Amino acid sequence: MGNNGKSQYRSRDLRHMEAGQASFSEPIIDVDTVLAKDRNTSTVEEAVVENVRSIEPQQVHANNKTTGELVDNLLIKVFGDSDKVRSALKEGEEHVFTHLQNYGMSEAILMLRLKQEKEHPEFRDELERLESDAQEKLKSLDQAPEFSRDKLRDLLIEYRKNLASLLANNNNNMSNQEEQITSPSVERVEPTEASAEVAAEIAEQINQAAEEVAAVVPEVKPEIKKLVDDSQNGIKEILSASGSSPLGYAESELDKITKPKTKVELNSEKVDSGSKIENIKHLIKKLNDAFVAPDTDGYTARRKTLQEVDDLIGTKQYQDIVLSHSKDKELLMNEAIERAVKELEDMLRNEELRLKTKELRDLIKQLETSFVAPGVDGYHVKQKALGEAARILGDQAYLVILNHDKDGGMSVNAAIEKAILEAEARIRAFDSSDNKSSQKKEAQPDSSAAKTADASDPTSENLTADSQEVPAIPKGPEGPTPEADPVLAKNRGDFWTAYRKRGNFLSKGRNLGFTAQTKEQLAEYDKIKEGYDKGVADKKQAILLEFRDKLDPSLSEVEKKAKVLAKHMELYRDEEKAIDDISTQEEVAAFGRFKTFWKKTGIHRLILGIGMFATAYKGVDLVAKAASIGMGPAFIAAMVTMSSTGTYMAAEGLLDTRTEMLGQKGLIDELKNIGFQKKKKGGEELITMEDKKAAVKLLMSDEYPLEVLEKEHSRLRSLSFDKRKGIKEAGRFGTEQTLMIEAVEEAYAYKKAKAFVESLATAKTPEEAKAQSLSTLLSQEKQATLEATSEQDKSRTKAWIRHSLSALLGLGAGWLTLNRLIDKLNVKPETTTPDPTKPEVVEIPKTVTVPGDKLWNLLADQAEQKLPYWNSLNEAQQTVIINVLENKFLPEASHWGVIGDVNHLQAGMEIDMQGFMDAEATKEVLGEGIARAASLSSEATQNILDNNDALDLAASRGVDITDINVDDVIKEYRPIMEAHEVGEQAVTAGIAENTQDIATGVESESVVDIAGGTETSDSAGGIETTDAADTDIHENVLDNARNQAEWAKNEYSQFVHGTGEYSNAVYKIVNEVKDTGAVNDVVNKVFESSAEIQQQFLHDLSPEIFTTENNKAEVFLKVLQESTKLPQIDSLGQLEKMIDAFDSLADSTALPGKEFAPRILNVDGADEPVYVLAKKVGGKVLGLFGEPKYMIDYLGPEPLVVSEQVMLGYLNPRV
Amino acid sequence: MTDQEKIIKLKEIYQDFLVRLNELKEKATAQTLAQIKVVEKQKIEDILNKIHKEL
User: Fold this and answer.
1) Which of A393, A690, A827, B38 is surrounded by the most beta carbons within 10 Å?
2) pLDDT confidence bin for A659, thresholds 50/70/90
3) Do A677 and A709 meet the contact criterion of CB atoms below 8 Å apart?
4) In this complex, do A209 and B16 lie within 8 Å of one another by their Cβ atoms?
5) Do residues A382 and A127 lie in contact, with contact meaning Cβ atoms separated by under 8 Å?
6) How many CB atoms lie within 10 A of CB A142?
7) pLDDT (mean) for A932-954
8) Which H or E run includes A98?
């Protein structure tokens, strides 16, 4: 634990820096020249190359040694194994290591040549020339500042080409010269290199050309594909026409050097290494074989295999199954096999994961050890470790290590560091996937140690940059840890438990709503907080001062400072870890567990949630609909009931992660916005190590002061408690944001520690230091817990709004629209990555007032824009929300651009409504308003509506309502309005009579309607009425239904008795009651009334037949009007008879006579056939050749006159 | 087969490929053109019919 090897190697790094720059650049040249004197060669490189020539390439590789080791051995071999050589090598290790890759390449070039030389001794000179050219180029490449791996590769390719073409040309010449004595050996070793190159080029060109053409003429894609396949096959045939490439061996050796191993290779290696994996695989295969084996034999084989499975797993389940149910053994056997295979596959996966993790951990260890490995062996070890890293991590970059730090390349140590971080990230990824599947977390001493090491040092760049003032953070002598202190542990436990309780808005210690806790609760909390702050500060002070005193006195002040800083950071991390342990404790209440579950599964479970909603909680449907009427108890009951359903949870979780206003976004999201919509592609991490490094760099800058980091850290801490997760997983997107959170934590810890060290440095005497350190630590701790508390408040407010909104949405808008609503809630697109250094300035248009604008209306518009579910809120709820906005706006009116009297807005003013709505304070107020609107009681709702009516009445009488007189106006007009209403009611009550049967029927129908169409009123009794609230809801539903029925009844009877107007409700009521008498009464009354009412009635009767488009009602009524022979319509039956008669007339496609007759015409451009009245008009008068004309009365301004042909066309367009 | 012969053969394949690809392209283009012509003709006829009707 704690600071391990990593700090040490960093300190080594820095010691180099302190020792002076010379050791990096100068001594190498001396070693080269001095040592090379005894040799025939002039440089180390040449000596090595010379020596390599004497060795068979096969031998080199048979020893399975890495190129670096080889070169190192050679160097010693060349110069002799003396102290002098070793020390020279040691001094030059960096340089030599840097050039290793080049030696490797040089060796490869040599090997290629040697191989060819063996086959073609006659070309020795040419081959040597080619090789030395290539070596020359390699050397100059090495010295070039912009050295890159690609260039090396190019060089190698060119060299191979040259070799091949040399041999090809000469072979041609030879075969021409020696045609008669064609030797089979010549044929056999014929090189194919040049043709292979050409083939590859042609194959590539073929693909390209095909793609281009396919893009232009996609319809012949299949033919093109066939053509390409044919051609490529032809190429293959030609290439395989003779023996294998003589360069095969060298090539494969080269590939070993230059190509990373494929995943398949790696996997198979790993699997081979674990005999358990082999066993599992073997068993799976056996089971699969046994499954398809014939009966008798199969049975024995199966049973035997199942027993083997049991042996492996250590159970008896599979063999027992077979034995105890021998009757049905076939079925059970197969079932058992399937289950066994499944279990084994799981085991296999876990085992492989375990091996992979182990391999990564071993790699981390190896890399860490290598980092501090000294001397001449050091770079072997480093290089070996990096070789492993390249293999395991599959990144060739670790092999190409050049000391070109300035040019953006990697230094050896940076490469090791990067490899460690990468390995850690992979382990993390495995862990999280492992957690997801099994929910069990293995103990990971190795990785956590590595993580702590990682966290201890922000990044290499940073420390290097800061190295002047903070030279090194070595692992200091062990001081006492805070863990050892039981008092502190208790304080900590007390505080964070209190903190958690405080954050739970459903906790009994809180009032519902988000008013603060009671005074006593606050005092209690503060007391616990104080105890904890002091406890931590005391402990830290004791440890830090003791640590400082025990430091080696020979150390410089700067070094001491750095060590204390590191210790401070270490203590911080220990404390954080301890807090994490508390935050991740399992919550007992089902609510929390459910919430976590839904937060994890989120959108995918929404559908399931709806299913649960419908089946498991049938009654809730009713509850929900009822509550939309706007009752407090109903709302709360629904909220509590629904809080145990998946639907509510899904909504809450979605709002949390997906909404701008109510979600949990913070600095980490600003640093790197990964967005909700952005899908993870093939396991690719959304946030990379590079992002983290950049973030740390940015956060370490002065742009992000300690306070900002503190705030973000506190926010995350609060979320970690909310989500019952460690702080590193507290981001909106969980583990995907871990790296960013680490960046914040590292920068925060560092800045905090730095502030402490600096304050300590100002102290002159030990006493002063003691006082100074304690006060600094205490203020740091206090600040941290205070900030955490304040962030929790914010987060809780948001959470409360989310919860309320989730319930409200469920009640009002319906779950199915939720997804769309949530998308609308996201004001900003989430896929862009904002550059924190350049904040985007978006010009927001201001609202320009026009004559007649009222603040109330402007705010209503804004609320409507901001809240997508606005229109599903009832009037009272809307009023509440606008009201809180208005109260917020009024005192700040001038700030937002209002000039003069806010009650009488001048036209042409530019008011920054958008700015007002976007202000943090407004958002909070809006949230309050939403929550309040969501929990309105029925009395409050009625009260608000009455107030509104009173205001409407006042306004209609010309009263000027302002924010000052509004209360008075309400007071004055409420009685007037109520008197008015009472009078109206008295009148209607007198009319309402004798329709009890209708009323009852309607009542039950209304309940159906309100309950969502699936339940009858009886089912209201099916609600689990465990709560008084539920009873209230039921009552309310019935109340409302009764009210509606009452109203409809009144409408009907007033109309029938001639005292009221016809309304849609009148038809509805007779239609729903299915009372023939009532229906006939209505029909009779309608056809005694005006044509308008008749028309409306027909539209109500069957809206799909009497549409507003087709004129049917109008034409039908006109026919009734015009005709004197038709009887009076006094019943529905009579009406239906008339309509039938009309239809048979209108359906005719015959040309009409001289009397107007109804017809259906199909006119171009009209959506549907149109009903008209048409008749023949005195054709010969109008037509020159006596052709008859037809007059069409389509009830428009003027009738049309058309020719017979056109009329026929209209009547039957197909003719 | 010598390497040079192989290269020659490979080039032949490539030439052949290009020729056949071009043929395909021309054929497809001709078909498309013909289709476009048919559609256009139909459109013109439709317009004429409409005008005729309205007259």
Assistant:
1) A393
2) low
3) no
4) no
5) no
6) 18
7) 79
8) helix A93-98
pLDDT at A86: 60
pTM exceeding 0.80: no
Q: Which amino acid is at A951?
A: L
Asked whether residue A139 carries a pLDDT value surpassing 80, the answer given is: no
Q: Judged by CB atoms within 8 Å, which residues 373-412 of A form the interface with B?
A: none
Least confident of A294-298, A346-350, A885-889, A1067-1071: A294-298
User: Chain A residues with CB inside 8 Å of B14's CB?
Assistant: 202, 205-206, 231
Burial of A164 (0-12, 13-18, 19+ CB in 10 A): buried
User: How far is A1020 from A1039, CA to CA, in rounded Å?
Assistant: 13
Best A231, A232, A233 member to test B by mutation, with max B CBs in 10 Å, is: A231
Provide the pLDDT confidence category of residue A618 given band limits of 50, 70 and 90: very low
Q: Lowest mean pLDDT: which of A77-91, A301-315, A1072-1086?
A: A77-91
CB distance A235–B13 less than 8 Å? yes
Average pLDDT for A276-297? 68
ipTM value for the complex: 0.81
Reading phi first (left if > 0) and then psi (alpha if -120 to 50, else beta), residue A2 is in left
Amino acid found at A431: D
Under DSSP, is residue A1202 helix (H, G, I), strand (E, B) or coil? strand
Instruction: Write the CA distances from A430 to A25, A421, A700, integer angstroms.
Output: 42, 14, 30
Is A1170 strand, coil or helix? strand
Concatenated DSSP letters of A260-282: PPPHHHHHHHHHHH-HHHHHHHH
Partner-chain contact B4 A168, CB within 8 Å: yes
Residue of chain A with shortest Cα separation from B21? A224
User: Do A454 and A6 form a contact (C-beta atoms < 8 A)?
Assistant: yes
A200 to chain B, closest Cα gap in Å: 10
Question: Residues of B numbered 5-24 whose beta carbons fall under 8 angstroms of chain A's beta carbons: which are they?
Answer: 6-7, 9-11, 13-14, 16-18, 20-21, 24
- Partners of B20 on chain A (C-beta within 8 Å) are 227
The DSSP line for A874-923 is -HHHHHHHHHHHHHHHGGGGGGGT--S-TTSPPTT-EE-HHHHHHSHHHH
